[in-house]
């Protein structure tokens, strides 16, 4: 299964600690060796790094780890290829523009016989079911609204569209337009909200710890979403299958 990582905050924050544990999951076995990517929203812009090589062996991942980009919304993905060959064009997360905003999408799972009609407004570049699903979601949003709707309306519309795709197979995904981060659980997804009083956290996949009380302010709030918990001394909340959650300013909205 692919690995997903997302971060949504109320103030620009770096993802260095979580990324350190996340990147180690790509390539240490022969399962997650099919590429990785990460996207950061910075104001109205989006900075995206993609590499078809395993994240644990990627010089691009080394660059990201040493370059503490601060962002309010981040989406990362480690790929285990199911549809489409290994290649840059099939590496998540995918990026498109709608209503003058960048949208970022990453998917974990496999959608069987998913060949929706596309009208040409959003066209896949690669060969994955994931990118087709992303294009179909944006196409339907554009058909429903002429401009960015309120976050609660967007949440409800995405929930309805997701229900149409979900019967085709496993559809865990992360999606953001720079303000909210949407997380849909089909099988495996969990999250944690870090806020005052902050404490020490220890990575599950590496012997690395950080005392968040030393690198945050009492007003900070950070939600981290992942396929599986990244730390072994914190309580992560599983997202129930079939649930599309919205995160705003570091807090979950069901």
Description:
The chain is an alpha+beta fold. 19% of the residues lie in helices and 34% in strands. It has 4 helices and 15 strands. It has helices spanning 16-23, 59-66, 129-144, 151-165, and strands spanning 3-14, 36-42, 45-51, 70-78, 94-98, 101-108, 172-176, 181-185, 190-195, 200-202, 209-211, 221-226, 237-238, 243-248, 251-253. The strands form 3 sheets. The chain has a 7-stranded antiparallel sheet, with helices on one face. The chain is globular. The mean pLDDT is 91.
Write the layout of secondary structure elements.
Elements: E1 3-14, H1 16-23, E2 36-42, E3 45-51, H2 59-66, E4 70-78, E5 94-98, E6 101-108, H3 129-144, H4 151-165, E7 172-176, E8 181-185, E9 190-195, E10 200-202, E11 209-211, E12 221-226, E13 237-238, E14 243-248, E15 251-253
Antiparallel strand pairs: 1-4, 1-12, 2-3, 2-4, 5-6, 6-7, 7-8, 8-14, 9-12, 9-13, 10-11, 14-15
Helix pairs in contact: 1-2, 3-4
């Amino acid at each position: 299964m692919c690995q997903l990582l997302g971060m949504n905050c109320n103030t620009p924050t770096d993802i260095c600690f979580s990324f350190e544990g996340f990147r180690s999951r790509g390539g240490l076995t022969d399962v997650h060796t099919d590429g990785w990517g990460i996207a950061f929203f910075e104001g109205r812009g989006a900075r995206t790094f993609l590499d078809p090589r395993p994240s644990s062996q990627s010089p691009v991942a080394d660059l990201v780890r040493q370059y503490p980009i601060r962002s309010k919304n981040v989406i990362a993905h480690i790929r285990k290829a199911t549809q489409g060959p290994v290649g840059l064009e099939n590496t998540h997360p995918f990026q498109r523009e709608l209503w003058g905003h960048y949208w970022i999408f990453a998917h974990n799972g496999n959608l069987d016989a998913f060949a929706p009609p596309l009208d040409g407004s959003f066209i896949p570049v690669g060969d994955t079911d994931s990118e087709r699903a992303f294009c179909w979601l944006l196409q339907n949003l554009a058909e429903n609204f002429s401009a960015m709707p309120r976050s609660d309306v967007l949440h409800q519309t995405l929930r309805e569209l997701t229900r149409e795709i979900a019967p085709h197979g496993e559809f865990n995904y992360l999606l953001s337009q720079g303000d909210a981060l949407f997380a849909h659980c089909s099988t495996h997804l969990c999250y944690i909200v870090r806020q005052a009083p902050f404490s020490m956290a220890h990575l599950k996949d590496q012997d690395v710890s950080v005392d968040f009380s030393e690198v945050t302010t009492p007003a900070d709030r950070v939600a981290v979403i992942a396929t599986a918990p990244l730390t072994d001394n914190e309580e992560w909340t599983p997202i129930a299958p079939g649930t599309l959650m919205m995160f705003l300013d570091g807090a979950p909205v069901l």
